[in-house]
C-alpha cells in the first residue's frame, strides 16, 4: 500500500530545513547502505550523527506526530531518526530492498523496518528525473511529489530512484516499525479507519453504526498489535 501525505511539513518548516541543509556538509550515501544496496547507490547524505541531522530529524518527527494519516496508515511503534539525502545531476539509486533490521544510532536498539517514508524537500520543477519507483504486486509506481509532501510504502518493496538529469533532489527518508507488521493487515485497518471517518461525518457519534465500527476497529488493533 502506497499512501501520499500532502503537506506533511508547513512552508515555514520546509524553508527552515532547506536553509539549514544549504549550509551543512554532505557525505557519500554508501556509508549507510548494506551489501547489495551499496553497489547501486550513488547519492549524498547528511551524516546521521551531525547536529543538523538531529535538529531537522526532530522537525520531521514533530510533523509526523500531528499527522493523522501517518498515524493511521503506519501505526508506528518506533520511528528511526530521519535521515537526509540529495541526488545531484547524474546521481541515482538502483533497485534494492532496504535492510530489515536497523540499529538506532547511539542506543544499540534494534528496529524492524516495516514502513519506509520519503519526504520530498525540493519542488519538482527544480529537477528532472529523480522519481521514486516502488514495485509492488500491482506493478510499478512512479512518485514525484511537491516539496513538503511525503509518501509511505511497505519496506518490503523493491524500489529505486531514477537518475537526476537536471538540478538536485533533496529529501528526508526513514523507517518505522509498526505495531502491525503485516502490510495487508495495516491496509485493512487504514481502510476501515478512513470509512469510520466518513461515516462519522454523516452520523452522530453515538449512532450504533459509528460506535459498532469504532469498537470493531479497536478490537482488531487489540488482536493484531504488538507494542
Ligand atoms: Ni531504499
Question: What does this protein structure show overall?
Answer:
The protein has 227 residues and is of the alpha+beta class. 30% of the residues lie in helices and 30% in strands. The protein is built from five helices and 17 strands. It has helices at residues 11-22, 51-65, 68-74, 183-200, 208-224; strands at 3-5, 27-28, 41-42, 44-45, 76-79, 83-87, 92-96, 101-103, 110-112, 115-120, 128-129, 132-136, 139-143, 150-154, 158-161, 164-166, 169-178. The strands form four sheets. Strands 1, 2, 4, 5, 6, 10, 14 and 17 form an eight-stranded antiparallel beta sheet that branches. Helix 4 runs antiparallel to helix 5. The model has no long low-confidence stretch (mean pLDDT 96). Residues 96, 98, 159 line the site of nickel (II) ion (NI).
C-alpha-based Rg, rounded: 18 Å
How many helical elements?
5
Q: CATH homologous superfamily of the largest domain - what is it?
A: q2cbj1_9rhob like domain
CATH topology of the largest domain: Jelly Rolls
Total domain count:
2
Ligands, deduplicated: nickel (II) ion
Shape: globular
Total number of beta strands? 17
Task: Provide the CATH architecture of the largest domain.
Answer: Sandwich
* Overall pLDDT confidence: 96
The percent range for strand residues is 25-35%
Low-pLDDT residue intervals, each spanning 5 or more residues? none
The CATH class of the largest domain, by name, is Mainly Beta
Could you say which structural class the secondary elements and strand pairing correspond to?
alpha+beta
Q: What is the end-to-end distance?
A: 22 Å
Encode the helix/strand succession as letters: EHEEEHHEEEEEEEEEEEEEHH
Largest sheet: 8 strands, antiparallel
Q: What portion of residues is helical?
A: 25-40%
Cofactor: Fe(2+); L-ascorbate
Pfam family, one: 2OG-FeII_Oxy_3
GO molecular function: 2-oxoglutarate-dependent dioxygenase activity; iron ion binding; L-ascorbic acid binding
Protein name: PKHD-type hydroxylase
Amino acid at each position: 500500500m502506497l499512501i501520499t501525505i500532502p503537506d506533511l511539513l508547513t512552508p515555514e518548516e520546509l524553508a527552515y530545513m532547506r536553509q539549514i541543509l544549504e549550509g551543512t556538509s554532505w557525505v557519500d550515501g554508501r556509508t549507510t547502505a548494506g551489501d547489495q544496496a551499496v553497489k547501486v547507490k550513488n547519492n549524498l547524505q547528511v551524516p546521521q550523527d551531525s547536529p543538523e541531522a538531529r535538529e531537522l530529524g526532530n522537525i520531521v518527527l514533530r510533523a509526523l506526530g500531528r499527522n493523522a494519516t501517518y498515524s493511521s496508515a503506519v501505526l508506528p511503534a518506533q520511528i528511526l531518526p530521519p535521515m537526509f539525502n540529495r541526488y545531484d545531476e547524474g546521481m541515482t539509486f538502483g533497485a534494492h530492498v532496504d535492510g530489515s533490521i536497523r540499529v538506532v544510532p547511539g542506543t544499540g536498539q534494534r528496529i524492524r523496518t516495516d514502513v519506509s517514508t520519503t519526504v520530498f524537500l525540493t519542488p519538482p520543477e527544480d529537477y528532472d528525473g529523480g522519481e521514486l519507483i516502488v514495485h509492488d504486486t500491482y506493478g510499478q509506481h512512479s512518485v514525484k511529489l511537491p516539496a513538503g509532501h511525503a509518501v509511505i510504502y511497505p519496506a518490503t518493496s523493491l524500489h529505486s530512484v531514477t537518475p537526476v538529469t537536471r538540478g538536485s533532489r533533496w529529501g528526508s527518508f526513514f523507517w518505522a516499525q509498526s505495531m502491525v507488521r503485516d502490510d495487508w493487515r495495516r491496509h485493512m485497518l487504514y481502510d476501515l479507519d478512513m470509512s469510520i471517518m466518513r461515516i462519522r461525518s454523516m452520523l452522530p457519534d453515538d449512532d450504533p453504526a459509528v460506535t459498532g465500527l469504532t469498537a470493531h476497529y479497536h478490537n482488531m488493533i487489540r488482536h493484531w498489535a504488538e507494542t
